[in-house]
């Protein structure tokens, strides 16, 4: 499976939000003002199917598409490319560049606590050394 292009990533974001959708539904959500032709979105989705980024099933005369490339895969690719896999540096950068509310920080703390507990329950991996 190859990585999505910028436009393919936009389509994936729509599919992640809507779930399984027709080309028409994706086109309406992606291009409410008709920025792209319907046929362009249809062609992109066929290419994405060939690349393994999405899968389709037939529903009468309509193809319904679902993402097979996950948001998590894209995040992992981004962290790998931009931060050489350093999750702590990625999170620190996000915290420094975005306005983060108190509620969001509390949610992040809960997520980190849960991740820490699940790591200690499973096989612990040694911490990554800083260079």
Describe the structure.
This protein has 131 residues and is mainly alpha-helical. The chain folds into two domains: 6-67, Winged helix-like DNA-binding domain superfamily/Winged helix DNA-binding domain (Arc Repressor Mutant, subunit A, Orthogonal Bundle), CATH 1.10.10.10; 86-120. Helix content is 60%, strand content 11%. It contains six helices and three strands. The protein has helices at 6-18, 23-30, 38-51, 71-83, 87-97, 102-121; strands at 21-22, 54-59, 62-67. Strands 1-3-2 form a three-stranded antiparallel beta sheet. Helix 2 (23-30) packs across helix 3 (38-51). The two termini are 32 Å apart. The relative contact order is 0.11.
- Topology order in helix (H) and strand (E) letters: HEHHEEHHH
Question: What profile does the largest beta sheet have?
Answer: 3 strands, antiparallel
The CATH superfamily of the largest domain turns out to be Winged helix-like DNA-binding domain superfamily/Winged helix DNA-binding domain
Count of β-strands: 3
Number of domains: 2
CATH architecture label name of the largest domain: Orthogonal Bundle
CATH topology of the largest domain: Arc Repressor Mutant, subunit A
Structural class: mainly alpha
Briefly, what CATH class of the largest domain?
Answer: Mainly Alpha
Strand percentage = 5-15%
Rounded to the nearest angstrom, the distance between the terminal CA atoms is 32 Å
The overall pLDDT average reads 90
Number of helices: 6
Q: Using the alpha-carbon principal axes, give the shape.
A: elongated
In spatial order, strands of the major sheet run 1-3-2
Gyration radius from CA atoms, angstroms? 19 Å
Give the fraction of residues assigned to helices. Answer: 55-70%
Uncertain residue ranges? none
């Amino acid at each position: 499976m190859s990585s999505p292009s910028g436009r393919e990533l936009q389509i994936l974001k729509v599919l992640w939000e809507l779930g399984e959708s027709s080309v028409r539904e994706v086109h309406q959500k992606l291009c409410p003002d008709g920025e792209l032709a319907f046929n362009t979105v249809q062609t992109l989705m066929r290419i994405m199917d060939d690349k393994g980024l999405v899968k389709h099933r037939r529903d009468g005369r309509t193809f319904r598409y679902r993402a097979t490339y996950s948001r998590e895969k894209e995040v992992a690719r981004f962290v790998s490319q931009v931060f050489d896999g350093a999750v702590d540096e990625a999170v620190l950068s996000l915290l420094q560049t975005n306005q983060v509310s108190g509620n969001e920080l509390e949610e992040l703390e809960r997520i980190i606590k849960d991740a820490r507990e699940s790591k200690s329950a499973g096989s612990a991996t040694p911490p990554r050394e800083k260079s």
